[in-house]
TrEMBL record:
Organism: Methylomonas subterranea
Domain (NAD-dependent epimerase/dehydratase) ranges: 5-234
Coiled coil feature spans: none
Lineage: Bacteria, Pseudomonadati, Pseudomonadota, Gammaproteobacteria, Methylococcales
Domain of life assignment: Bacteria
Protein name (database record): NAD-dependent epimerase/dehydratase
Gene3D superfamilies for the chain: NAD(P)-binding Rossmann-like Domain
Pfam families, per the entry: Epimerase
PANTHER family per UniProt: BIFUNCTIONAL POLYMYXIN RESISTANCE PROTEIN ARNA (PTHR43245), NAD(P)-BINDING DOMAIN-CONTAINING PROTEIN (PTHR43245:SF23)
Length: 312
């Protein structure tokens, strides 16, 4: 079955991968984005007759309300993502990550479907074994994680919602983010061959950006069986520490050097092992391994380099 899908923040890191996939699956896709990063990541789908784009702010009721009326499914990706960005603009983070989603939930009918990306960073440091399922206590530390937890609580009052607690995402996307951990470490390995780690023993889970898109498509296909639930989504064989991640990168870049130093602190204090068994039980399987994603990033960073204020 094909749907009218509203993708807010659809020109971002996740959305610019997800929008083409949804169009290819036969859905009509409307993207709402403010294009704050001046991205042109959806150029390649403008030809598609089922693609529409609106430049606007999700925080404005006059903008979001008419778009919601025409949507069967809403995928709210628009957000200030990650602890550092939220710390830099805490007011913008609250109005975008919390207030705008509350407005959206108020405007939705009970029959409209919401597929919401949240975050497994809310687990903090997990239990004494650092092991987390969807039933584990949430211990969010950063503003980003705290507001995602609040939104998830409100979201699950909506009878047609699914929450995906995403692992740390990695991989190449038309709207690239180099600041995500695997992407960042691989970029440094390619360009600097060196990195100083902090809290190198901290573990977290990872997920390729294309597998994020596949998780949302899986939920659309299996919606009746999955609705009203919260799911962790990640690579079950990639609950690895920062040190182990560096060792994995070094398999492909042998002269990559890394040391663990007693400086710095993870703003989310993420240190956990996450179970993805619940979503796997619905038939969902990831398709891109950590090794394959790193190989992809190495190719990408052969083409991409942040050198705006340098001569080389």
């Amino acid at each position: 079955m094909n749907y009218n899908i509203l993708l807010t923040g659809g020109a971002g890191y996740l959305g610019s991968t997800m929008a083409p996939d949804l169009l290819a699956a036969g859905h009509k896709v409307t993207v709402l984005d403010n294009f704050m990063f001046k991205q042109s990541s959806l150029n390649h789908v403008c030809y598609h007759p089922n693609f529409s784009v609106v430049k606007g702010d999700i925080r404005l009721e006059k903008t979001i309300a008419p778009l919601l009326k025409n949507a069967d499914i809403v995928i709210p990706l628009a957000a200030l993502v990650g602890a550092p960005l939220c710390n830099m603009d805490p007011i913008g983070a609250t109005t975008t990550n919390h207030d705008a989603i509350m407005l959206m939930l108020k405007l939705l009918s009970k029959n409209q479907i919401v597929l919401m990306p949240t975050t497994n960073s809310a687990y903090g440091t997990g239990d004494e074994n650092n092991f987390c399922t969807e039933e584990s206590p949430l211990r969010p530390i950063s503003q980003y994680a705290i507001e995602k937890v609040k939104i998830e609580q409100e979201l699950m009052q909506h009878e047609n919602a699914i929450s995906f607690r995403l692992a740390t995402v990695f991989g190449m996307s038309p709207r690239m983010r180099i600041d995500l951990l695997v992407n960042d470490f691989t970029y440094r390995a390619v360009n600097d061959r060196f990195i100083v780690l902090f809290e190198g023993y901290f573990k977290r889970n990872y997920l390729h950006v294309r597998d994020v898109s596949r998780a949302f498509q899986h939920a659309i296909t299996n919606y009746d069986a999955m609705k009203g639930q919260i799911y962790n989504v990640g690579l079950s064989d990639a609950n690895v520490s920062k040190m182990e991640l560096c060792e994995t990168i070094r398999k492909q870049i042998p002269d990559f050097v890394f040391i663990d130093a007693p400086v710095g602190k993870d703003p989310d204090q993420r240190n956990y092992i996450v179970s993805n068994a619940k979503i796997e039980a619905t038939g969902y399987k990831t398709s891109v391994s950590l090794d394959a994603g790193i190989a992809e990033l190495i190719k990408g960073f052969t083409m991409i380099k942040n050198s705006m204020y340098g001569n080389v």
